[in-house]
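Much of our argument rests on the idea that a fold can be written as discrete symbols. In the encoding step, the backbone of a single protein was reduced to a row of integers, each denoting a local shape. We regard such an encoding as a compact summary of how the chain folds. The record that follows shows the chain in one-letter code together with its fold in token form:
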Amino acid sequence: MSDSDLRPTAAEKQIDTEMQALLDRYLQGRKPVSIDDYDWDQIRPGAVDRDSLEALGFVTFVESNPEAPAQMLTAAADRGSAPWLRRFIQQTWLPEERMHHAPYREYLIRLGTYSVTEIDSLIDDVRDRGFIYGKGYTPLQAATYGWLQELITWRFYEAMASYLLTSSENGGQTDPVLIKMLRDIAKQENFHRFIYLSGARTVLKHSPHKKGEVIKTVGEFLMPGHHMVPDMQHRAPEWAFKFNFPFRKLLRDISAGLVELTGYKGLGQTAILYGVRHEIPLYMKAAVMFLNLLSKPYHSPVNYATGRVLAAL
């Protein structure tokens, strides 16, 4: 590969200029959460049910190894001439994500849900597994994965906090420490979502021919827990239903984002690809496989019709 092949294109330079300006505007004054942010004397051990503690253990483990995905994301930034993405990961995303598990871990230890030795051993297991998603990603694919993962995480933490605030299962008790913790971290996840989505928008504004990268990334998407905490990930839907997770709101968020980034055709093509790549009810699988044959070209009317139907639901 020649030196000229490594030089950023005019589009990549413009994308970086715009995203650096956005980062200049929003990254000032941000700081990670800390275990010192919370008044641990205010813990209410009887206010949190067992399912919530188990879900908290799950997210603690998923949050405990941000260094592994950070390597994938910065590799994508360097491979695709995207200094803005490297800056965001190194200056903000990684420092903030590196601390997300720390208050959760402290909380679980103080409640006696895990001993120090036990929880740290499980965290070591997660770190040993590493992170397998994002190999070979472009900056647009990295931003797309980040947008979707942070969106789901933000909604999950908000749902969990709302459930704990309103649940009457424990005699009307609430735990202000855990609720504050979840909401503090949810706000950071939402900010990360905003930056990733802004990055994807900006890339496509200058390189609209790259819509296929978004479609492929979302169509193949899996949450990190599938690899990082495989023995607990299968319970995520169960916890989500318990916490009244806003599934319809999430689907509207995803649909709106995909329509903005890729159009109705992209939304339809993504949904069909997702149905092919993931487990869905058997009675739908045959239909999806057939539609997949017709959806290969982006401009297929099947994609547009599917996208319009999904957006209207």
